[in-house]
Design a protein that fits this description.
The protein has 249 residues and is of the alpha/beta class. The chain contains nine helices and nine strands. The N terminus is likely disordered.
Length: 249
Amino acid sequence: MKQQKNKPITLDEFSNISLYQMLPCGDGLALKKLKAIVHSVLHGQAIREANKPMSLLITGEVGKRTHAYAFLRALGIEHISHISANMLQLSKDVVEFFCDSSPDSGYLISNFNMLPASMHKKIYQVLEQGEHRSVDPYKVKVIATPVYGIIVCTAKNEKLVPQAIRNSFDYHCELRTYTEQQKQLLCLQKLKYSNIDIEDEGVLKTLLLNSTSDLNDLMKLLKLSVTVMMADGRNVLSSEDVRKGKELW
């Protein structure tokens, strides 16, 4: 394939993919469910409690953050506050994370299974009661601050989330494992979004042959292969780039 020199390569564009452009994983039920939730919310058909934020738990081995961001953007959320659950160590961390809350706020808490046990009650209050509580500076009274908007949390497995908290989510969506064909299509889509072409279909097969069954490893190899390609001043990925990328593992 002829090399194209003037086509900009933007490796970060894929992170902004639309929910309606995403490829389904496994049986595709997870993506259908997310779209159904979005449709019901946008058309006023979803049952939402006025005194608490809408909440969603996304579980699965891979793709959770991409699906979470796409879901929130599909609901018109422009500013998304994101934090890893292990960073919520103190009450003040929860207060700071949910500060300036509004109906248009979007929150993403990833690695929810890493949430410190001391914060379980705090997050439960946010999900179940729509507020977080803190003691005033003089330790005289408890201040309850309402939380609005939409909260999305992610974890590898729902069983890693305490049952009481798990039951507080309005929705739960489980991402299935990608098939081999879906992995190839995902690589191709990611490359297209990054303005990168492939030499032939053998490139996709070479990617799968040189990576483990883990999707994260496949994406790591893809990035390394693209790095090799870019170092040579090209934007057409070849099987040789993949093999050289594997050597950089």
